Every structure is written in structure tokens, then in C-alpha cells.
Amino acid sequence: MPIVRPNKNDLAKARRKTDWRRLDKLSDKAIKRAVAGDPDAAPDMSRALRRGAFRRVDPRSAEVDVVAIRARTGLSQRAFAERFGLDPRAVQDWEQGRRKPTRSVASYLRVIDKAPDVVAKALEEA
User: Fold this and answer.
1) Which pLDDT score is estimated for 1?
2) Given this structure, which CATH class describes domain 59-125?
3) Closest by alpha carbon to 107, among 99, 98, 115?
């Protein structure tokens, strides 16, 4: 499904059409009822947040030192990328700081760092 972004005119038109006085008069109960009846509404997570069901994720947790990981393998960028099924250009971009690996790729790189031979063997067997 394509993403549709309204332009300024569409937003201004929607604001003029909205009966803000009527919305201001809605009670919390009426709002909850309306949200519960909307299949597109996000689920209420307030209870889960209060009981601590979620953990904070450090945004830096995805950062990995690709240069150091590759250096420990003793491989060139191209050989490293080929051995572990990565895009050589992506490895180059990560090392030069133009891009950062996604969280899943960062996890994969950490596994490569801890057990490069096991990863290579698993990829050969696949």
C-alpha cells in the first residue's frame, strides 16, 4: 500500500472541517469507546508500560566496530563480505562511517566476531 502524505491545503481543509468544540466535550470514556471500536487504532499499552513489560533499548546497542571485527578475521573487505554473505559496498560504507549496519546485521557481525569459523561453516553447509 503506498504512503499518502497530505499537502498543506488538505491539512488546512481538514482543520476547517473538524468540529473542535464537539471534540473538546468528549469524555475519556467516550474516547476509549471510539478507540476500542476502531480496528486501525493501536492497542492500549499503558498497563503494560506501568508494569514494566518493556525494556529500554540503548540506541547505541546497534553500533559495532566493523573495522575491528574484519581485522580480527584477517580478511580484506571483499573477502570478508564474500565469506559471510555481505554486500562488499555495505561493508565499505560501514567502515567509512557513511552508513550504519541495521540492528540485525549488527547482531550478525557480533556472532561473526565471536565465532567466524562456525559462521563460515554454517554458510557453506546451507
Assistant:
1) 60
2) mainly alpha
3) 115
